[in-house]
């Protein structure tokens, strides 16, 4: 039995690759696996306490690895700066002391709005050392997504740059009463902000990592819903057990590896696998400040002799498009494992990886809510291109059908249903902040329901089919249509609006808005640009629509709900499906 | 097409993608994506539009020469006949 899109295709692993992998035999490891045993790979703190930062840095320094490079930062200019585990230990201690010196206590929420600069990594780990909660924000968000996420989380402190402060924070600051401290990585010379560097210089580099309880909140990540505000996903220090274990099993990370995760820490991948797992596994992390660039990326893989590379479909597809000549004769003899996440990687890209790098990209699947990789293709396991692989040891996944308020597992191969997981792994979210009802809705009859539709084949490989709702995934990140619609509704000309995702060769999906205007407004290019600018100013380029179309009216149900599904089907020339609830149609 | 025309075309195309960023507020020597607050997708849209208008094929491997407004302008000037 093989997957749908690629009949008969299967990439086998040579014996020496299988023998060399961290997990040589998936079935054997899975059978004997327990999370309790997995936890013993970590140190913990006396009295049953556990702190992510201790596992990521302190314990390695104590074990004599202080001289190993923990982070190699590549600035936009191409200049390299290295930070050893010992240096990171002292810098994160200083940062924790800066927080204390500025009145931030255990449990306070510390946010970062930064590009991929060293301060971001130091702030993340220093915050955890201080027992505070770390929340990263994506720097391509505009003021409104930033405000919503800071307000919901009750941000007490923010670390940002002068540029991002001026463009995105200055205008919303008055609306954030809980925000007590604002640090900038360069001297903003603005009242009420403090330049971080002199504070770091004068802070002590001695700090005793707070012995947090394993169930204390450590991280807050936001994800978008179809309706309502973004959801603040709560993760605890115990999650480090899953970060560490999945880094070892699903990414094949080993102490001393050169590891490059291209994800931005503004998203969960860039934190779980761009900060925590690589450090707990004592690798050397490569961090590139610049955005995607083909020559630059191939140079980094080559010059840094990267061993393990974790990237995303959008980038892989762009590399693939540029073809073999873009490699410029570069070869990558050190590259041992390549993985991809964010959205399903198309079979062609998996095979292209195999032809180009001598190994396939290993797709894996997880969500902000799961905190870590749940289903993956492994170094020692055959890859079926287009499949997300098999559940991690310690993870039980199923395909379920939810009907009449009950969730029933579908066990026949290739049955389509909702991808569901049995809760209980260490990095499972502990809640949506202040949203108990939305959290409860994720669970039914002992399953966590992912909202993704999938199938499982007879060999136990899982295959992604689509989303069960209207969420848009653009460049690997969820965009909530409601958040975009709300911003557009604020415009004087807009009567109603619906936002959908349209297929895009590189990004997976792009955001498109359909707008019906109020009387007295005429559709046209000027108004379209005006609306685009309005949306970009509020939402930023990562969330704002890339295209806007005008309609006289939008299709709605009897209860007045706009039928996004119908708009999308029409835009793509697909069957309209069940339109029995359609009351007023577009014109 | 002379330098002035190329510059005007660039400003027009950027105005389509980032209409909220007035050209006189940006530093033409600094990072183009930062200055216009555009992401990788917007950048691709820009390059595709410019390539189409100028009849240029602009391969992905040349993108590192287009990191600033000035860099992009220089690239276009030297490739347009």
Automatic annotation (TrEMBL), chain A:
Stretches that traverse the bilayer: none
SUPFAM superfamilies for this protein: Acetyl-CoA synthetase-like (SSF56801)
Keyword set includes Nucleotide-binding: yes
Ranges where the AMP-binding enzyme C-terminal domain occurs: 483-561
Record bears the keyword Ligase: yes
GO terms, molecular function: acetate-CoA ligase activity; ATP binding
GO terms for biological process, alphabetical: acetyl-CoA biosynthetic process
Domain spans labelled AMP-dependent synthetase/ligase: 60-433
Keywords of the record: Acetylation, ATP-binding, Ligase, Nucleotide-binding
UniProt-listed Enzyme Commission number(s): 6.2.1.1
Superkingdom, taxonomy of origin: Bacteria
Gene Ontology CC: cytosol
InterPro entries registered for this protein in UniProt: AMP-bd_C, AMP-bd_C_sf, AMP-binding_CS, AMP-dep_synth/lig_dom, ANL_N_sf
Descriptive protein name: acetate--CoA ligase
UniProtKB/TrEMBL annotation, chain B:
Species the sequence originates in: Yoonia sediminilitoris
Entry superkingdom: Bacteria
UniProt name for this protein: Acyl carrier protein
Span of domain Carrier: 1-80
InterPro entries: ACP-like_sf (IPR036736), PP-bd_ACP (IPR009081)
């Amino acid at each position: 039995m093989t997957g749908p899109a690629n009949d008969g295709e299967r990439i086998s692993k040579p014996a020496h690759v299988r023998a060399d992998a961290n997990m040589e035999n998936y079935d054997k490891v899975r059978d004997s696996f327990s999370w309790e045993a997995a936890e013993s790979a970590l140190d913990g703190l006396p009295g049953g306490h556990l702190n992510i930062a201790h596992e990521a840095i302190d314990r390695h320094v104590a074990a004599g690895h202080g001289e190993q490079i923990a982070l190699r930062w590549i600035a936009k200019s191409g200049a390299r700066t290295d930070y050893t585990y010992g240096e990171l230990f002292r810098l994160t201690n200083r940062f924790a002391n800066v927080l204390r010196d500025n009145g931030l206590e255990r449990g306070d929420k510390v946010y970062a709005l930064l590009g991929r600069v060293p301060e971001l990594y130091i702030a993340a780990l220093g915050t955890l050392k201080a027992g505070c909660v770390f929340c990263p924000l994506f720097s391509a968000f505009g003021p409104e997504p930033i405000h919503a996420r800071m307000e919901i989380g009750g941000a007490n402190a923010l670390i940002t740059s002068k540029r991002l402060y001026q463009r995105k924070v200055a205008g919303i600051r008055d609306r954030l009463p809980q925000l007590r401290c604002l640090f900038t990585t360069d001297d903003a010379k603005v009242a009420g902000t403090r330049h971080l560097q002199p504070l770091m210089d004068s802070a002590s580099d001695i700090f005793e990592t707070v012995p947090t309880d394993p169930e204390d909140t450590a991280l807050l990540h936001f994800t978008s819903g179809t309706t309502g505000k973004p959801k603040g996903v709560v993760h605890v220090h115990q999650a480090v057990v899953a970060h560490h274990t999945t880094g070892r099993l699903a990414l094949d990370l080993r102490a001393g590896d050169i590891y490059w995760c291209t994800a931005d820490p503004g998203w969960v991948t860039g934190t779980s696998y761009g900060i925590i797992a690589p450090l707990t596994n004592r690798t050397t992390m490569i961090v590139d400040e610049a955005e995607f660039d083909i020559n630059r990326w191939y140079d980094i893989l080559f010059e840094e002799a990267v061993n393990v590379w974790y990237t995303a479909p959008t980038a892989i597809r762009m590399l693939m498009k540029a073809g073999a000549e873009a490699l410029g004769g570069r070869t990558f003899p050190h590259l041992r494992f390549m993985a991809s996440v964010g959205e399903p990687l198309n079979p062609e890209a998996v095979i292209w990886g195999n032809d180009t790098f001598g190994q396939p990209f290993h797709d894996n699947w997880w969500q902000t809510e799961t905190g870590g990789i749940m289903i993956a293709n492994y170094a020692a396991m055959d890859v079926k291109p287009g499949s997300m692989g098999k559940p991690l040891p310690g993870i039980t996944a199923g395909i379920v059908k939810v009907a009449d308020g009950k969730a029933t597992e579908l066990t026949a191969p290739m049955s389509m249903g909702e991808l569901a997981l049995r809760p209980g792994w260490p990095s499972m979210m502990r809640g949506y902040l202040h949203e108990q009802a939305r959290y409860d809705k994720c669970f039914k009859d002992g399953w966590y329901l992912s909202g993704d539709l999938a199938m499982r084949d007879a060999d136990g490989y899982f295959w992604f089919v689509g989303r069960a709702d209207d969420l848009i995934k653009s460049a690997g990140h969820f965009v909530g249509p409601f958040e975009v619609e709300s911003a557009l509704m604020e415009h004087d000309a807009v009567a109603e609006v619906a936002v959908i995702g349209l297929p895009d060769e590189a990004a997976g999906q792009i955001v498109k808005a359909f707008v019906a205007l109020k009387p007295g407004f005429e559709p046209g290019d000027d108004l379209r640009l005006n609306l685009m600018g309005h949306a970009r100013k509020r939402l930023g380029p990562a969330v704002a629509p890339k295209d806007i179309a005008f309609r006289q009216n939008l299709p709605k149900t009897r209860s007045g709900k706009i039928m996004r599904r119908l708009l999308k089907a029409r835009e793509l020339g697909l069957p309209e499906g069940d339109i029995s609830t359609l009351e007023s149609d577009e014109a | 097409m002379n330098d002035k025309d190329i510059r005007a075309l660039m400003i027009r195309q950027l105005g389509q993608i980032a209409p909220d960023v007035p050209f006189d507020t940006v530093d033409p020597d600094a990072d183009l994506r930062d200055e216009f607050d555009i992401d990788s997708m917007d950048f691709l849209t820009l390059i595709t539009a410019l390539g189409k208008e100028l009849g240029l094929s602009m391969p992905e491997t040349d993108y590192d020469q287009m990191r600033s407004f000035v860099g992009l302008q220089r690239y276009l000037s030297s490739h347009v006949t």
